[in-house]
Write a structure and sequence with these properties.
Elements (H helix, E strand, L loop, with lengths): L1 H10 L19 H14 L21 E8 L5 E2 L2 E2 H14 L3 E13 L4 H18 L2 E10 L7 E11 L15 E4 L5 H10 L16 H11 L3 E6 L4 H13 L2 E5 L7 H10 L12 E5 L4 H9 L8 E7 L6 E4 L5 E3 L13
Parallel strand pairs: 4-5, 9-12
Antiparallel strand pairs: 1-6, 2-3, 4-6, 7-10, 7-11, 8-10, 9-11, 12-13
GO biological process, one term: protein maturation
Protein name: Hydrogenase expression/formation protein hypE
Family: Belongs to the HypE family.
Length: 353
Amino acid sequence: MSDYKSILSASCPMPKLDFEIITMGHGSGGLLTHKLLDAGVFDVLSNEYLDKQHDGAVFDVTPGKMAFTTDSYVVSPIFFPGGNIGELAINGTVNDLCMCGAKAAFISLSFIIEEGLRVSDFWEILLHIKQAADHAGVKIVTGDTKVVERGKGDKIFINTSGVGKVHPEAAISVDRIKTGDKVIISNDIARHGIAIMSVREGLEFESDIESDTCHFNHIVEQLLEGFGNGIHFLRDATRGGLSTILNEVSQSLSKGIAIHQKDITVDESVAGACELLGLDPLYVANEGVFVAFVEASIADQVVQKLKSWENGLHAAVIGEVADQHPGQVVLHSQIGGRRVVNMLVGEQLPRIC
């Protein structure tokens, strides 16, 4: 990824402009808007759809089910260890489609920029957007740019929508989860939330903690190709963390979920930061981790497939669905105890996506 970023930066140097910051005029739709977009946005994100510079995109779709999603990104700070708001926006939109059993294909991209944002920061965000889109294999086909007055935004907000074709073998629905299904986590947890918190609060730890932001476009396709409707449900563990996702499922089904602490990996530095801050990693946000509910008979194979993925080294079966304690998630601790893991109350970490 870093090598790709270097190549991209070299091939797409920031253009020489007669302005260094974004002004209200850049959102007017007039000359300054065109200068901003023509100075590199269209060139960096160029494809056969965006090049038409129309208000929308027209494309062919093959027969079958399509998935559609939309999201807005207001993360603060806009640059954080391991990524920035641009990369996050693309990955997050791709992943929402993946959790529907779809492969993301086309994305719309809209900026709401606060007057005063440095053009160099906007360019850095743009390059990360290009990098993330290329790695996920998606095309940005339309978009919009608006500018708000200084003090009425927070540097930059990004809105996206995405569409993708649902895999023919996908049957992703919470209603398909049944007693005995295994619960799988795709990687270690809590890195994104702690990375954001470290920058916001000016905290320093013994080792750098980077966001886990990444896309699932290829790995979910491979899982569906290999295991089809044996995969009952998928959900990314973003806001509210792992505990919130499990509680939502448990309450929706009126079934119990048992999880095992020994099987849930938390990076040593992340665990130390959580202990210092008084946070439970189960409630801390992720941006590159998803939960899968699968047939018990294929669980080990699914984990092995995830472990072959660069972002799934710590994938594991962490629990199972049970008839006992309906509507509750129960954690079996490493020392042999048990406790109920409730849903997150309030907002533990601000502005993580």
